[in-house]
Write a structure and sequence with these properties.
Distance between the termini: 41 Å
Strand content: over 45%
Largest sheet: 6 strands, mixed
């Protein structure tokens, strides 16, 4: 399985989340029981971590990706970022499912 490109646009200082539903080859929801996940934002490969998503299994093949407002404040609109998402299955196999660029915008209001 090759990873899909999914770019993100995140507002600074705002809670950010999205959901992803994954189906198998038979169009059935994937069972994520016993799985672990890593989804991170960095400027580039081997650069310091900017933010790590909390990934929650909602059941029925659906995952929720979340960043807090404190985490999104660290994403500068003047820099370029990348992100990716890895799934480690219960048997230990690791699959990269998503990757992409991350853009951010300043807020006018001070929060």
């Amino acid at each position: 399985m090759s990873a899909a490109n999914h770019d993100l646009a995140i507002s600074c200082g705002e809670d950010f989340n999205f959901t992803l539903r994954i189906l198998d080859a038979f169009q059935d929801p994937v069972d994520f029981g016993g799985s672990s996940f890593v989804a991170e934002i960095r400027e580039d490969h081997k650069k310091p971590l900017i933010a790590a998503f909390t990934v929650t299994d909602l059941g029925d093949g659906t995952l929720k990706f979340s960043l807090t407002n404190d985490q999104t404040k660290l994403i500068s609109p003047t820099r370029n970022y990348k992100w990716d998402f890895f799934w480690t299955q219960s048997d230990g196999s690791v699959t990269k499912l998503l990757y992409g660029d991350v853009s951010s915008a300043h807020n006018i209001s001070r929060i």
